[in-house]
Amino acid sequence: MIFDTHSHYDDEQFDEDREELLNSMQTHGVEAVTNIGSSLAASRRTIGLTEQYPFVYGAIGVHPNEVGELEEDGIAWLKEMCALPKIVAVGEIGLDYYWDEPGHDIQKKWFERQLELAREVKLPVVIHSRDAAKDTLDMMKALHAEKIGGVIHCFSYTKEMAREYLNMGFYLGIGGVVTFKNAKKLKEVVEYMPMEQMVLETDCPYLSPVPNRGKRNSSLNLPYVVEEVARIKGISEDEVIEITNRNAKTMYRL
Ligand code: NI
Q1: Which of the 8 DSSP states describes residue 1?
Q2: Which of 40, 99, 135, 173 has the lowest tally of Cβ within 10 angstroms?
Q3: Which residues contact 241 (CB under 8 A, 6 or more apart)?
Q4: Which residues lie below 8 Å from residue 35, measured CB to CB, with a gap of 6+?
Q5: CA–centroid distance for 4 within its chain
Q6: pLDDT digit string (tens) for 86-110?
Q7: End-to-end CA distance of the chain, in Å?
Q8: Ligand 1: distance of its center to the CA of 204 in Å?
Q9: What is the distance in A from the centroid of ligand 1 to the CA of 36?
Q10: Mean pLDDT, rounded, for 34-47
């Protein structure tokens, strides 16, 4: 069954039908999902979802565009919550230079601090990196992130960059973008990378695959991603589901 390694079911876009939608997952072939925190408030909501649904796991952390709110007491709270049994990763953390706020130095400071947090609590990391390929890789190498492990979520860089992360033992998160006609670079990465380091993700409510591009996304759309990965790799859809499910459980240590 499908494992969605990156979702945001705490988002207000799910307020109308969250319970109904989540309760329909398992009958539609979705075994488990990891809800990802993007701020302290979203991390708190993530913990709530893990307590309410047996098949929902959680990652907690603060997204690079939200670190303006962070202070050391926020890190202390995250550290305490990382001890909860269903919190399986620190994230999403990283660098995002698409937006100018907060400044690069502030983003780097809290990226480093949250990488260290993951090391302290012995959990893998969920990395968000956008328009910041070189700085993200430089920091992760300098801080020996290969000893922490985890996933580069919504991987959007080149094959050469993919090789760097794969060599560090990281998984690459593949989602709806791979179905887009103009996603040549990502299709090349999927063709190149070993299945053993791929995990599936939605990033829902964002990034719906074709044919639902532009609409609200959910884990129920992952079969379209599976179909495209199977086509590129020349393997069956069942194999894609089985291997990525096993990878997700290895990565999140379930
Ligand atoms: Ni996300």
Answers
A1: -
A2: 99
A3: 1, 2, 29, 226
A4: 7, 8, 9, 10, 46, 49, 50, 56, 57, 58, 59
A5: 9
A6: 999 999 999 999 988 899 999 999 9
A7: 15
A8: 7
A9: 6
A10: 98
- 226-242 residues labelled b (16+ CB within 10 A) or e (exposed): bebbbebbeeeeeebbe
Element (H, E) at 226: helix 222-233
Q: Taking 90 as the threshold, does the pLDDT of residue 74 lie above it?
A: yes
Taking the centre of ligand 1 as the mean of its atom positions, its distance from the CA of residue 92, in whole angstroms, is 7
User: What confidence tens digit (pLDDT) does each residue in 216-232 have?
Assistant: 999 999 999 999 999 99
Instruction: State pTM to two decimals.
Output: 0.97
Query: How far does CA 41 lie from the centroid of its chain?
Result: 18
Cβ 26 vs Cβ 4: under 8 Å? no
- Asked whether residue 75 carries a pLDDT value surpassing 90, the answer given is yes
Ligand 1 center–CA 201 separation, angstroms: 9
Ligand 1: centre distance to CA 46 (Å): 12
